[in-house]
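Quick one:
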Amino acid sequence: MTTFLVTNGTVPKALANLSTLPTQLYVTVAAPNKKLFERLCVPQSSRAWEGLMETLELLPSLSTRTVVRHTLVDGWNLGWEDEYAELDRLADPTFVEPKGYVFVGDSRTRMTVGNMPSHASVREFSARLSKRLSLDVLGEREDSRIVLLGRKGAKLRVRG
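Output:
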């Protein structure tokens, strides 16, 4: 069986207490610093950023494939490659996945369709980030506005 877990990483104890790890663990890092995180993500906990940092520190010790996903919102968090690279180095994930924001769900109360970045913007961000991290572009899906970064030879398919 193959399992995937996607988390915002704000409750690191939940990951540390898992008796069985998923096949692949995604942690969303939607902001490069605490100030922007609080403005963009509007967390319910006053310790959400600190929890995310603890999760990123925990990732290298987990014996599973890990992915840091950067959900990019035009006018909010595009750019900041140096700061994102610092967070990615801390997490040392198997893959880094810059992805364009999609205007769906509750985010529509704070965002507009204009906050959805083009794939070209996501690709440009990814190219700048990959240079800072010495990672390669392993793939992309223009219709999903997503780019996958990792080390050459990284196994892309998960076998259960």
